[in-house]
Amino acid sequence: PATTEPATTEPETTEPETTEPATTEPATTEPAPTPLASLEPGGLSLPAATAAFGSLVVGNQAVSVTIWHDHLPVLAMASGVGAGGQPVTSDTPMVLASVSKLITAKTIARLATGGAIDVDGPVPWDLMGIAHDPAWDDVTVRELLQHSAGMPKARSSWLNDPGSCAIPLTAAVARPPIMSRGTWLYSNGNYCALGLLIEAVTGVDQATAARVFVFDPIEVEGPHLSTDGLSPIDGPYAKGIGRLERLGGAGTWLASSDDVAGMLDSITTDDLRTMTYPGIMIDQYGWGHTGTVDGAKACAWVMNSGRTIVVGIVAGNRPSTGGEVCDALVPALATDLGIWADEPRRLPV
Question: What's the chain look like in SS3?
């Protein structure tokens, strides 16, 4: 059955992409969007995807959509006004919410390929400086990646308060893993821990590590953490960027749709040995991740047997989840490509 993702006011939900309850903002008036770039190699035409972008513009502060096909950017569209008063482009960093987890997972994958991390080995809590119940000693890095470590959800712990995500993580692991260990239970705590693991292994902060292992190899410079503050070159975020600090590796990244698409295009077979389901989401079109916080929604999806990538980022609350951003963009793009196969049926649910 198709996945439904209603907005919720409860901190404990089962929506995998939601990092906090969604709320509704009043609609705003935006100028009619125009494509910033439209390259059509081989006669590729994307009218349905362009129309889907237009539907996302209504009522939001800013929207950015980038599409790659056969390792080339083929469409980039954006609307809205950035934090410094400049027009938003597809290269404008915006709040990714839980799409940040793809950056964290890819950094882990690159460290695993280089032998710095054993994905199937135990999490080195002591190296990370995290006091914990001994029952966590045999939890593996892969269990964190796949949300099967028995980490409690405690979703309200991962937003708004200042300070490192190590604070709520230490509270979460002070008790043994919950009984769900071994099965998928989405918790931001898993990717908070992975971000801290990156820092412990590399000796640098996770932003620097991601630049070295993920972004520098593809010559991307714009992504940064919310702890750097909202730059004048960033997209808007009405709720105050500081509230995202506690998400750590689970949701603190800002990046442009261009940058995320380029990152996904550089995913290797070795990366996909680490970035596996259910840590990444899947549907009949492909795989990726969605993201939802109050004031920002995002979708990053690899489809068409890896040939096509779509990334959409919304500053605002329409639609109410990142999953619904995917619901707008992915089938529309599939229609343009002649591979339409009904509404996305995302797993896990």
Answer: CCCCCCCCCCCCCCCCCECCCCCCCCCCCCCCCEEEEECCHHHCCCHHHHHHHHHHHCCCCEEEEEEEECCEEEEEEEEEECCCCCECCCCCCEECHHHHHHHHHHHHHHHHHCCCCCCCCECCHHHHCCCCCHHHCCCEHHHHHCCCCCCCCCHHHHCCCCCCCHHHHHHHCCCCCCCCCCCCCCCHHHHHHHHHHHHHHHCCCHHHHHHHHHHHHHCCCCCEEHHHCCCCCCCCCCCCHHHHHHHHHHCCEEECHHHHHHHHHCCCHHHHHHCCCCCCEECCCEEEEEEEECCEEEEEEEECCCCEEEEEEEECCCCCCHHHHHHHHHHHHHHHHCCCCCCCCCECC
